[in-house]
What does this fold into?
Amino acid sequence: MSNLPEPAPIVRLPDGTYAYADQLPAVQPTAAVPQVVHQHIHQAPPDRTVQRIALGSGIGAGTVAAGVYFGPLLVGALTAIAANLALLAFLAAVLSWGVVTVVRSIGGPDGRRAAKSIAKARKRR
It folds into this structure.
């Protein structure tokens, strides 16, 4: 026995698209006065297809809720990790540039030769 509600029948609209019968647009009476339509574009009608498929496959509401909760949380955590790694790479580049600059300026001819040998070693790789 399934404790899920029966899905509403699917109907074909005049424009050729399909919709659930419980989500049909309201029929507006024809009037001589044009009506002002106040539509919220960002608020889409609820689409229960994914929930029906997920719950119908037997994984349970808890799993669906966990996916809804932990999905964005995982994306946020991975983004934070990537930002930390980018910051560490930037710091490593700045610090190595600083060390090379200090060695060149303070070391005199020996420092310049050391910097050139390091540059040659990097080019060989």
Notes: DSSP finds three helices and two strands in the chain. Residues 14 and 24 are 12 Å apart (CA to CA). The first strand starts at residue 10 and ends at 12. Strands lie at 10-12, 18-20.
